[in-house]
Amino acid sequence: MLWLAALGAGFGVMWRYESTPGPGGGPPSRWPARSAIARRSGLPTLVMFAHPQCVCSRASLGELERLKSRFDGRLAAYVVFLRPSDGGEEWDRSDLWDRAAAMPGVTALRDVDGREAARFGVVTSGHTLAYDAQGGLLFSGGLTAARGREGEAKSARQIAALLTTGQADRAVSPVFGCALAHGALPDVEPSNERGRR
């Protein structure tokens, strides 16, 4: 009985962790004028912010890849990776960086000390923003239904609807990921995965 109780408690803690979103932040309703990220004229733009060592963000990248394939050539997309200025040149070069950089039509960028994340009001890895061709915010949130889970969220369908028709059930969704802060990461990659190219 004690073993079953301990097992149940462990599953409960794990389920709560997987299903508890991170802070939603406060993204601006218009593309920030001071952003160094180039918004392509005439195209909607999708920006995902990510911690390069957040294992939760693998699922977010998978959802991004599927979404991007539906809008080939009709959507500019960026994955913006945190890199602290004291982290060294290879700190952000993880398998997540490699995966994002390999996606057709997706640009991987470094965000030194989280300056762009601050401009966009984003604090959780996996937070994705969709802006229309005029720079107006269409969607803010995560692409997954829980930490590390692919294929269950409505977010990608909502973004697709917003990009196609300008309408969707909900323009905000919870974000399931690690904090976009150096030293505040509970789910870090094993040391042999870090710095890979």
How do the helices and strands line up, and which of them pair or pack?
Layout: H1 2-19, E1 45-50, H2 57-70, E2 76-83, H3 95-102, E3 106-112, H4 115-119, E4 128-131, E5 137-141, H5 155-165
Parallel strand pairs: 1-2, 2-3
Antiparallel strand pairs: 1-4, 4-5
Helix pairs in contact: 2-5
Task: Summarize the model shown.
The chain has 197 residues and is α/β, with parallel strands linked by helices. It has helices spanning 2-19, 57-70, 95-102, 115-119, 155-165, and strands spanning 45-50, 76-83, 106-112, 128-131, 137-141. It has one domain (2-165): 3-Layer(aba) Sandwich (Glutaredoxin).
Features:
single chain; 197 residues; disordered C terminus; Glutaredoxin; 5-stranded mixed beta sheet
Polypeptide structure, described:
This protein has 197 residues and is α/β, with parallel strands linked by helices. It has one domain: 3-Layer(aba) Sandwich (Glutaredoxin), CATH 3.40.30. It has five helices and five strands. The chain has helices spanning 2-19, 57-70, 95-102, 115-119, 155-165; strands at residues 45-50, 76-83, 106-112, 128-131, 137-141. It has a five-stranded mixed sheet with strand order 3-2-1-4-5. Helix 2 (57-70) links the parallel strand 1 and strand 2. The protein is globular and about 45 Å long.
